[in-house]
Amino acid sequence: MKKLSFVAIALIVSVSVFSCQSSNKKENQKTTETSALQQKVNQYATVKLTTDLSQLTNNQKKMIPLLIKAAKVMDTLYWYQTYGDWDSLLGSLSDSTVIKYVKINVGPWDRLDEDNPFVKGVGEKPLGANFYPKDMTKEEFESADISNKTGLYNFIRRDSAGELYALPYNVKFKSSLKTAAKYLKDAAQYAETSGLEKYLNLRAKALLTDDFYDSDIAWLDMRDNTIGIVIGSIETYEDQLFGYKTSYEAYVLIKNKDWSKKLAKYAAYLPELQEGLPVPEKYKKETPGTDADLNVYDVLYYGGFANAGAKTIAINLPNSEKIQMEKGSRRLQLRNVMKAKFDKILVPIADILITPKQRKYIDFDAFFNNTMFHEVAHGLGIKNTLNGKGTVRKALKEYASALEEGKADVLGLYMIEQLLNKDVLQGDIKNFYTTFIASIFRSVRFGAGDAHGIANMVRFNYFKEQDAFTRLDDGTYKVNFDKMQDAVKSLSHLILTLQGNGDYAGVAKLVKEKGKIGPPLQKDLNRLEKANIPVDIIFEQGADVLELK
Ligand code: ZN
Predict the structure, then answer these.
(1) Is 275 part of a structural domain of the chain?
(2) 374 C-alpha to ligand 1 centroid (Å)
(3) Cα–Cα nearest to 334, from 290, 368, 366
(4) Distance between CA atoms of residues 470 and 473, nearest Å
(5) CB of 270 within 8 A of CB of 289?
(6) Residue 77 to residue 84: CA distance in whole angstroms
């Protein structure tokens, strides 16, 4: 019965498409475009953002909807920062698929496709988003005499005489920020610890003044709370013109205390692991800090910049170098979102690209640990070159980020090997290796546009050369466990010495030779696309979804 009706529907559809083709060429063209856009929407799997709420107290249940309300204000502020007149953009659109994709991208430019426009007539995305006047050139900005022009918390605008000036966020957004601050203060009344209460009140004040220092310090001091929120104007990625202006965003969080305890235990091994790095003594003489504040959270709401396009699964804050020097930083691992990406993306990828015999090694704990140790491993190695070229970052210029991400990936795996040997970490190395290789396929799909993408391609090609995996005739990949360990060791050695020597030419050569997707890999990635494996996720989220009033 079901089958029959499916056939009937298929017939009706094909007939109507046919009549459409013959009678109205324009209409047909629209259908094709829409289905291409539907495919773009399909790149994102929808996930309900939630966690075990039965653990919450009544006060916590009252607090979360208030925090979500504050986070939603960040949505509206970010929409303005990235696009401008958001309502008129949405009002000009009628196709529900287009509207959906505009909302996913927070604008008419495709974040998974190098910001190319997908709405007719909008033109290219301005590099400076809506932070600067659209007609302003870099030269004009650089020669302009504006106070605080490189400030993190202002727009650059033109006055009636055409002169550039800085408009502080707290002025432009005064009434919205007041609303958000009020929600934070109301939430503070339900705070379960004095640390959280203090942080929420200081953060409310910070939103109104654009001065986040005191609240950042209070955030780092706050240790024993279960509920948390990251909120404010924070990252500068959206400003691709200069990288000065920050974007509003928010994460409403619940701490996973069991996992957090485990991570604290692993971080204590950093100095010991630093000593064991597979490089000569001089490349490991810096001492990593052991007070890495690493915690695991489930997220209940992504707001503003955090919710645009691909979703992050780890945060490291605050960004202020002054505070980092004084107090360090905090790393947050977002576990329910990692789990969603694992289920919706990594497992389906492995089902296509990993040899059937090894699919049993694809494992969420391994995926979680690989990601988490990546973060810890940023603390290993050295920050300064050994030959007077200054910091590694300065010496390696535009390649610095890609090499640093590559280092963290491979040293994360090295840490796992070591901690398994020491019996500190439990599990089978085969799970970690196989899940690691499958993760490379997931990451390279983001392309060469970002540091992680380049790092993954370099590693993929390096491991291939070292026989750490083999592509079988059936188009699947087999991990060669015995060769993996050597490959991890030699790649660690290569990256750490390139960093220590500040060897810009050497890194440029490595990226040029290995930082690209060869034809066989591209063919395999195309198979993932044909199989409609999502690239990233979007959320059903909010107080309604959580059934919290
Ligand atoms: Zn990283």
Answers:
(1) yes
(2) 6
(3) 368
(4) 10
(5) yes
(6) 9
Please tell me the predicted confidence (pLDDT) of residue 19. 32
Distance between Cα 157 and ligand 1 center (Å):
34
Tens of pLDDT, residues 253-265: 999 988 888 877 8
Range of the domain at 528: 264-289+341-544
Ligand 1: distance of its center to the CA of 401 in Å?
9
Number of domains, the chain: 1
Cα 88 to middle of ligand 1, angstroms: 38
Give the Cα separation of 12 and 10 in Å (integer).
5
Distance 358 CA to ligand 1 centre (A): 27
Best-predicted range by mean pLDDT (82-86, 311-315, 402-406) = 82-86
Q: Is residue 27 part of a domain?
A: no
* DSSP helix/strand/coil, 278: coil
For residue 26, is pLDDT > 80? no
**CA 439, CA 390: separation in Å to the nearest integer?**
33
Q: Which residue has the tokens 């090499």?
A: 403
Read off the pLDDT of residues 123-160 as tens digits, 9 standing for 90 and up.
Answer: 999 999 999 999 999 999 999 999 999 999 999 999 99
Residue 355 lies in a domain: yes
Mean pLDDT of the chain: 90
Question: CA 145, CA 258: separation in Å to the nearest integer?
Answer: 53
Q: Is residue 403 part of a domain?
A: yes
Task: Provide CB contacts within 8 A for 508, sequence distance 6+.
Answer: 399
**Is residue 253 within 8 Å of 63, Cβ to Cβ?**
no
